[in-house]
Design brief:
This protein is mainly alpha-helical. The chain has one domain: Orthogonal Bundle (DNA polymerase, domain 1). It is 57% helix and 0% strand. It is built from four helices and no strands. Helix 3 packs antiparallel against helix 4. It starts with a helix and ends in a 26-residue tail after the last helix. The relative contact order is 0.15.
Length: 107
C-alpha cells in the first residue's frame, strides 16, 4: 500500500501540486483503501467508489465540498497513477439541514 501512495506522491510532485494537496489526496486514497478492507484499487471500480462516497456523506456527515475533494483524489489515483478510466460515479450527496435559520428578534 505504501508503494501505491508513494507513486501518487511522486506523480503529484511531477505535476507540481502543493504539498498540502498531496497530503490531502493521499489521505483520502488511504481512507478509501482502508474502507474496503485494504483491497487494491485495481480490484475495485465505480461501485466501490460510490459506496465509499455515499458512506462518507450519510454516516460521517461530511460536507459536499469535502466529498468532492475525496472524489477528485480517488479519480486522480485511477487516471494518473493506475491509468484506468473511471466513468460516471453515482453516489448519494450529503443531505442539507432542512431547518430554517434561527433569527433573533426583540420579541
Amino acid at each position: 500500500m505504501s508503494k501505491l501512495l508513494d507513486a501518487v506522491r511522486d506523480s503529484m510532485r511531477l505535476k507540481r501540486y502543493s504539498s498540502s494537496t498531496i497530503e490531502s489526496y493521499t489521505s483520502w486514497i488511504l481512507r478509501f483503501i482502508l474502507h474496503h478492507n485494504k483491497w487494491h484499487p485495481r480490484e475495485m471500480g465505480v461501485a466501490e467508489i460510490g459506496a465509499f462516497l455515499s458512506y462518507r456523506a450519510n454516516e460521517k456527515h461530511v460536507s459536499g465540498s469535502t466529498q468532492n475533494q475525496a472524489l477528485q483524489a480517488i479519480l486522480y489515483l485511477y487516471k494518473h497513477v493506475l491509468h484506468i478510466e473511471i466513468g460516471n460515479v453515482d453516489f448519494l450527496r450529503p443531505v442539507k439541514d432542512k431547518r430554517p435559520p434561527t433569527i433573533l428578534t426583540r420579541q
